[in-house]
Fold:
Amino acid sequence: MSGGTLLWAPRAWIDGRWRDAVLLRIGADGSWADVQPGTAAPADAEVLAGPVLPGLVDGHSHAFQRAFAGLTERREGEHDDFWSWRDRMYRVALRITPEQLRAVAAQLYVELLRGGYTQVCEFHYLQRAPDGRAYADPLELCWSLADAAAEAGIGLTLLPVLYERAGFAQPALRDDQRRFATGADAVLALQRGLRASGRPLLNAGAAVHSLRAAAPASIRRLVDGLDDGPIHIHAAEQTAEVDDCLAATGARPIEWLARHAPLDARWQLVHATHATRAEIAAVGRSGAGIVICPSTEGNLGDGLADLPGWLDAGVPIAIGSDSQATRAWREELRWLEYGQRLMLRQRNVAASGAQPATAARLFDAVLDGGRRAAGFARWGLRSGARADLLVIDSGDASLLGVPADRLLDALVFSSPGQPWRDILVAGRWVQREHRLAARHDIAARFATAMHALWAEA
Structure:
């Protein structure tokens, strides 16, 4: 090994298992130039303070929804479900300004870093001014998010969203959806503008809000015009959505996508909660992936995905923070498994004969699934991947005395704590000794934005 910054880890998670004495070299481009297990630490290497894991990708985020995390937990009528929650969410969406969005997103992205994510996929449908008019710069709110991510130090995959109607039988948006109005050509222009910016740690794909929110011809125009990047879509999150799709098209949402999209490896189906085994098999044949958001799906009462079915079909799986009820991947993985245990009344549901360790199977699944969701060819502790890692604080209360080969098990299934001592993103330390390098006024600006957004309440 010669040239570049050298790091040496006593243990590192590589290709699905712990490897000892790992030397890592960071190239000039912020990627891993070499990763060599079983290597003594050279004199010029920085010896890391604990075992290391690759950072994970948050495969689905709505940053502005951090502004009301924990603030929709009171029933306002006789019945409360996703749709009543959505109406309350619109109240924030109609008020938030570009400056407030940046403040809220910066706070969120700091929290996601602390939660072990080093890249976030932002499903971005908040595009217009509060009165519904276009900003002079159509990318105004995109820049708010990009600036926030740069300030926090996290990587960002921005996904401007095609959103043109309120439902299958409604040709236009409702008035309280006026800030979301975006056609296929506008989405393509946003995506190309983001890519052309050349900002570090920023890439872009595109998204379709849902089948109910976009006409088939518009979806086709978007897909045909997108020359690069992932394509995300909300699919089969609620049973009412499935019923509406059946009534309007004669097919369930995932069934329709498999027949007409057509699905391929660029596609990510977000939630995919209510899927039949036939639909799962069709997605598996297509090469598309899914993004499950366990804490949000639990918070909204959406239901539980068929995790064994998706795993058995070999479908790539990512996880997402979505509505920001939780901002740490450890808790998302924990509830991804716990939901299945509660439903099936079994333990270690995600484990398999080939991989009996539940945490390891889930972690490796979402490590690769997140890579695909964010649009990367390589990810993790391997040559050519971006130089991201998490240094584990083995002295954290949740990890004290844990045998070395059970460390990942304890990280996922033991008590919450603050296990990331240091965090590296693209070869740069964004956290050292539990202290984040981001500006100290992020929390203050977030508090100011929250006060302004909620003063009337």
